[in-house]
Predict the 3D structure of the following.
Amino acid sequence: MFMSSLIRSVNKKIPGLLIFLFLFFNSSAYAAKVAIVNFADNPDYQNCRIVFSSLLKKEAANRNVPMEIVYIDTKGNMESFIKEAKAIENSVDLFFTVGRPSALALKEAGITKPVLFNAIANPVGVVVNSLVNPGTNFTGVHSAVPVNKQLKALQMVIMRVKKIGLLYSQDNPFSLAQIKKWKEAINELVDNQISDLEIAEFPIPASVDTEAALVEMFKREVAGNADVLVAPDDSKITNLAAGLIAAVLENNMPFYSSDTAMVRKGALLSLGFDYAEGAKLSVPIAFDIINGRSPAGISVATYPQYKMYLNLKTAQKIKLSVTMEAIKNASEIFKE
């Protein structure tokens, strides 16, 4: 009698016990750990990291996934970056980084854990094998703006352009690839008799490796030989930007840069991206990786929309009248 009562009692409790165990194990979700790392910075990259961190925490709470985020920022010190990245590699699920320099620093460090990158203009052949099938431990969001759209933005802001000067590092394959696309876009307009634009090329030799040397080259070769100066996203030009921009302004020359950060420094114009939107695209990819998907099979995403950066203070300095159409089309305007 006692045994049958006990069995009935246990049987009644089994469903409740199963529910308790289900809830217990599901509430004890795997604790994810993400490293947000930076080697070389600009305000856009910083904004992307901040938005990504915030959205990642929010989505982790929605999914009931405990989330730990660690940060590395060595401000350009490669030795420290490699040391710190290697030190935490075994304890994290993935590394998140923004921009080409930081992604390349992780590659240089020999990181084999998944790397989720953002805002690399052309990652193919650099950190992935293709956009559809990365085939490496890297995947993410790439940020290539079609050159024909950049050219259209330039012509909208600078109405009377005849000769476009292309400034680039002649020993940088990434810059050479961008310049090739610029020449193709310009020549297509000319061939179709849509425009009579001319091209003047100003390749920067490897020997020009200081700010003063680049300024001297600009004064000797560029000034007076083009109506507008165009530079791709080129690490040498970015690093030596201060002197170059000052020289360009002194010569009242409009300066278009594919690197949006240059507009804050005094370049007139750039067509880039809303980095906060790019950060949003990174979050679901991060959870795919946390849940076990290999980055090798996760296609690289593309920024959903473009954003025009315009420096009106520079326009005033070089005595350039900017149309209301251009101002209305600018997503970010700098006046100070």
